[in-house]
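request received
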Amino acid sequence: MSSLRFDCTTNDWVIFAPERARRPHEYRGLCPPVDESESGLCPFCPGNEYLTGKEIYAVRGINPDPSRWLVRVIPNKFPALRIEDQPERFEDGPLFRHMGGCGAHEVIIESPDHERTLAQQPVEHIERLIGVLHFRFVDLLRDGRFQTIVIFKNHGERAGTSLRHPHWQLIATPVVPRLLRLKHQVATDYFDLTGRCVYCQMLADELAFGKRVVAENNHFAAVCPYASHVPFEMWIMPKTHRSSFADITDQERRSLAELLGSVLRKLHVALENPHYNLTIDTASRGDEDKRYFLWHIRILPRLTTPAGFELGSGMSINLVLPEEAAAYLRDTPEDSAT
Amino acid sequence: MSSLRFDCTTNDWVIFAPERARRPHEYRGLCPPVDESESGLCPFCPGNEYLTGKEIYAVRGINPDPSRWLVRVIPNKFPALRIEDQPERFEDGPLFRHMGGCGAHEVIIESPDHERTLAQQPVEHIERLIGVLHFRFVDLLRDGRFQTIVIFKNHGERAGTSLRHPHWQLIATPVVPRLLRLKHQVATDYFDLTGRCVYCQMLADELAFGKRVVAENNHFAAVCPYASHVPFEMWIMPKTHRSSFADITDQERRSLAELLGSVLRKLHVALENPHYNLTIDTASRGDEDKRYFLWHIRILPRLTTPAGFELGSGMSINLVLPEEAAAYLRDTPEDSAT
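response:
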């Protein structure tokens, strides 16, 4: 059973998912937790559907064969949070509080192809995938217990992947994470002062300056932000103000697929298929129609290792100026990625 | 030249240290930045002192040979921040601000022994080392430009070490990191409500409960905190309220050396010399004599990899309950570490 515990020194909720763990003595040595199927078969490959939990959703072509899916959504085999649990709160003394591990944890299998990375997918497929992410996001929002839905992708071992077959994950949490509360507060303060969305203003300033822009099209721009926390950090931001990923239009979806594919191909070529995390940052429940926040995608390559200074201070040390990262990516051709 | 840039979406300052970096094209592949001496010689070993910058401080025995040091402090060869720079602030437009990379970045070479880990050092040497850390901390605090001093140790590659020879680092920053401001605010709020230090209360509650205590002596206790963010996270907390590491007494120093050595030996045996980060959390300038904060040591084993969910939400997923981690460490004998 999962649960969440409140850190009374930072106001963070920490998720405890001991069922995902090995026993303490199994932490000897340094191997990360692995959830590969014991059989050696990839549970995400077509034909092995029986190895996963019950299918939540899938996009199929006209072929009725159940193994001929194009994108497939399944429950995470070792969920951090569960839809069956309730968000009840308990006191373990005056300082210590915990709550039930209520939430959702889904896996979105990107395509049937075990080896093809997202950078190598055709734009039609990326558009289809964004559609599935959007559908699951909107569907889970119907459950009023879920406050925040985090959509993310881990590409490569250094980014925390344990299964090679390309996939995304989605975790719905029963609390608004403290970091997201902070971002919302900072954006609200800016709005109160200026009457503008700080993210839209940032995008306008980046587009005017130009040197940190990697690529853009009608609806989106990809930039290495001014205060990037890691080398080659890239944000994809919509040009029209929308707080929530739920509000993306069909037209924007196509545009996003084009730009996302393009910058991932550049990254793939420029840094030789680097490991990276990708997150979709979007407004939490109740803030979806506010004018303060702009949903966006963050791509965070895992080229360096945060160490004691970062853990002690919460500050980042970045070794590459975003102007240089953006220039390098801009000048990188996309064609050799496919 | 280093600089800091303000992240207008989170109020974080990010340190840019491009001199530590390779060129963008050198980020192809996945090797972390390495600052091993080109010669293949360890710059931290006795006899190779000429490979480092000018010695800042050292503890020597009665032997006058300059290579017969016991603990040695040198400038970091690739400093994140520099004492020569000034903390002037500049505007790069209305949203974007940067400041000079003013600060200090020192390396404390733990001992002349290339292979002996801190867990394997005798208590007298750990006490000597704590004395050196304390001396450098107090000395750097004299420079009024430095707001926060972060002392930390990275043990093993997964913890971000690039040089194997055991060492600590110290970075003085010209701003109070946003995370430390937050911790101070949370502690202040608790004090305003209850009249007590939240950390002292937490320690009292942990000692009363007992199941998360790993070890204790007269002056310190080591606990796996209730809301540990990572498996086997351990805090060493003083039993007497002091906000700042600067105020540690000689008696406490000895006690700390004993407890730190003891729990590191347990960790070494229990998890087979795991990679870990260690940080000393202490009050920032101006808050040293407040009754809200308790300085403490955090030991953070690097057994799992934070991935997209953690980066997207700021929340942690912990696979091991601290009660289980503490019981396992309590029951682990220390003797086989040496």
